[in-house]
Amino acid sequence: MSQKNKINRRxxxxxxxxxxxxxxxxxxxxxxxxxxxxxAIPPSEKITMGFIGVGGMGTGNLxxxxxKKDAHVIAVCDVDRxxxxxxxxxxxxxxxxxxxxxxxDFRELLSRKDIDAICIALPDHWHALAAVAAARKGYDIYAExxxxxxxxxxxxxxxxxxxxxxxxxxxxxxxxxxxxRFACELVRNGYIGEVKLVKVGLPHGNSIRQGxxxxxxxxxxxxxxxxxGPAPKVPYTPTRCHWNFRWILDYSxxxxxxxxxxxIDIAQWGMNTELSAPVExxxxxxxx
Length: 288
Hints:
Residues about 5-30 and about 30-35 have low confidence and may be disordered. The N and C termini lie far apart (about 55 Å). The protein is α/β, with parallel strands linked by helices. It has a domain at about 5-175: Rossmann fold. Strands 3-2-1-4-5-6 form a six-stranded parallel β-sheet, with helices on both faces. It contains nine helices and six strands. The relative contact order is 0.11.
């Protein structure tokens, strides 16, 4: 059920139900779950979802949405066959059917007419293209941080969200954690006194996982060309893709767009400076 149609559809169903009930009782063969009885949510009130990117973070998000009674996942997409088959099987197992569609190309998923909302969890260099394409289709979107690979791409996403009047949420999970919210409320309401300096800590190193950096054959079932997408065309290496993309500047921004995206956001939240921009930036790197 789309966000834009939710109120009208609910009221329509309510009016039809009331008028019909006044004339004739519903046939006893209609399951109570269809009518929303006993706490069940009728299918007409569920949000149908498609998932673009079901690797590590995408799979985590998928598990979370599968537990939501008002969400119904019907399609998944990933350029890695192992990822998308695993996600498809998870959805089918939860839904107790074989209805979940699995796609290699997210454009095929976006061509469907029966999806209300999209969850995007792709490498950063793909965020803007997938998000703008989904917005143009009118889908509401939950997309992983960082918002985009570049500032200009982020602006393109914001403009698309406004133009097509969709609902957008960036997946900064700490924003949804009550402990972070409580801490920010304490700071913003003066419980710790005047704040003169805020320091943000980040994990040490780049956490590159083991693997060869030498060119190698592309694994079967992995659409490497699609994975690269708008990035420069380079030979496949095992340490380039999946988890390690975040440490390679062609695809992401290292710790600044990985963990810093979370922690600096919380610092801004606590200081009530979310709508401001940096006055001065100074960077320093230490090399062994």
